[in-house]
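hey can u run this one w/ uracil bound, need the structure tokens asap thx
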Amino acid sequence: MDRDSLRQYLSFYQDLGVSTLYRRLKTEEQSQTPMTALPGLAPENDTLLKILEDIGDCKRCRLHAGRNKIVFGVGNEQAKLVFVGEGPGADEDAQGFPFVGRAGQLLTQMIENTASKEGIPLKRADVYICNVVKCRPPENRTPEPDEMEICGQFLYRQLSVIKPKAICALGATAAKALLGRKEGVTRMRGNWFKWNEIPVMVTYHPSYLLRPYNQNAKREAWEDLKKALHFVYD
Ligand code: URA
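ok here u go:
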């Protein structure tokens, strides 16, 4: 980690009220355990409101420079299922809510139509939806590792407060942030992983499914979602 990243890293913990950090030497076993990209710390008695307040008018990373609105997350604070995307696009940046553009409409359809076909009474408002980074990356580029790590502290806290029965990671960025794994979504999708003891289903990002030649991926994503919905709501 270079000096700038270290300074930023320490300042996250300062924001959380932690003033002293200890450096732990890696044991052989720890060094073989896949690291999760999210910095692992949540204050006691945390709430979504506190997290939002702590984010404030965030300028912790370069993404703040191009944003219109911080996109925190939306949905049921007691949701049993949380969807994690990558980061806001243009529509989300303008409105301040995640997944409200074309990819969002597809996600809503996927959730509500699959649930309805499976006999599960579930609407989009019953789940919680958020992203790895809360500000729109320029030109919708993939968030950089340092941006994911800086913003990841808030995703960590959101998930720790909601404590869903399962998480659905939408696409490679969410999978990497939650699971610290570099395999492509094609290899991971449809399988269960764990984030802090919470089962994580990895599937394709809805933006990928919008591409016309991805009919097969669409079918697979529907299968993944079905699996997640039955696991959570049966
Ligand atoms: N893509 C994402 O990853 N998140 C959004 O909120 C919208 C599009």
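The mean pLDDT is 90. anyway lmk if its weird
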